[in-house]
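note to self: dont lose this again. the chain is below, predicted strucutre after it. 257 aa total, dont forget to put it in the shared folder this time
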Amino acid sequence: MSLKYVLLDKKDGIATITFHRPEALNALNSEVLADLDAAVDDVIADDEVRVVVFTGEGKSFIAGADIKEMDGCVGLDIVNYSRKGVEIFRKIELMTKPTIAAVNGYAFGGGFEFVLCTDIRFACSKAKFRLPEVTLGIVPGFNGTQRLPKCIGMNKAKEILFTGKMLTAADALELGILNHVTEPEQLMDEVYAMAKQIADNSASAISLVKAAVNAGADMDIDIGKNIELGYMAACFGTPDQIEGFNSFKEKRAAKFR
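---
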């Protein structure tokens, strides 16, 4: 598979997808989205991959959507461009494998929206976050208006969306957007340490936990509890459940497939 604008690396069950358009601070255009989509399809299909890490090359994670490509678009042109990003982001959000964002720098516009579709979020202390769309006379196009309120609450999300203000990594951590903030030189070490911890657990159980959490976020608990019950029952009799129980009884570390 030939990719120009993202780099794909796999090692020890962990796939790393790196945004690789440093001349444009990794801004998202149609070509970047196409390469991202191909890389995501690859890791979804690879049974050896248990965790997926996303990061950026250079001083930027993703500096937003490419203004040059959007300039001059009208009507269906911009709808089709936005829909492409929305569909890929949703695919990442719903993939059975856990995802980790390693935000190494600027996460503006579409970059901030991308972070919101990942499961676990790390950032270096120098990272910056912003949804500047209202300062450009537009609305976020990759579902930032939908995911941010679910992440931090309606009022705080509206403040960020209405003002277009900049957030530091510390701000994002305090708001609950991030799980962890590290020093720049420690970012990837800490990300991979968590990725390895997750990869050592049962992939089948994690996929069902993720599905249950995602489903429950959008429904009443009385429906969600039955989904969780069904997923829990589905685990029993699987190789991972048998190995997990045997390792517990034998007082040893589990060795999942």
